[in-house]
Amino acid sequence: MSARWVRGLVITSVVLNVFLAGAFAGGAVWLRNAKAGGGYSLETAGGRLPEQDRKAFRQALRQVRMDSRPVIQDAQQARQQAADLLQQPVVDKAALSAALERARNADIIVRTRLEQAIVEFAANTSPENRSVLASALMRHIERRAAGGPKKTP
After folding, report:
1. Are 106 and 11 in contact (CB under 8 A)?
2. Can you tell me the distance from the alpha carbon of 100 to that of 98, in angstroms, rounded to the nearest whole number?
């Protein structure tokens, strides 16, 4: 083996090890933050409920999503249409606005249905479970007030 070949092998090994170490550290941070930062919305708060209640909560939300599948698909189609319109040489502002409005309205319908399912669950559950849901809302409010990460459209 030539010294040049060995040197290239050592450099490749160092680069690969640095990449793997970074990936491992990043994954560990992501997992830690996912566990510590969960429960900022009513939907994710359901994960903090006792197991039997958590299953009922998730089943109620899953049923809403299944029942809302046509609305969800309409929102996806509207977003696809908006993306297609954005790629045209000349933007049709009216058509783009209509597609985005259609997607937004579908999202609002699904969110309203999900929130109503959560209201029904809360109305029929224990005070302890309602406290878990309330804590999630408070964490969400505190995070927003502190200027936490915001979702981009």
Report:
1. no
2. 5
Tokens at residue 89, please? 């040489």
> Does the reported pTM lie above 0.70?
no
Tell me the one-letter amino acid at 124. Answer: N
72-99: average pLDDT: 95
Residues 97/7, Cβ–Cβ less than 8 Å: no
Q: How far is residue 37's CA from residue 23's CA, in Å, rounded to a whole number?
A: 20
At 23-81, the pLDDT tens digits run 777 777 766 655 544 445 667 777 788 889 989 998 999 999 999 999 999 999 999 99
> Where are the chain's structural domains?
58-146
Nearest alpha carbon to residue 41 among 145, 139, 148:
139
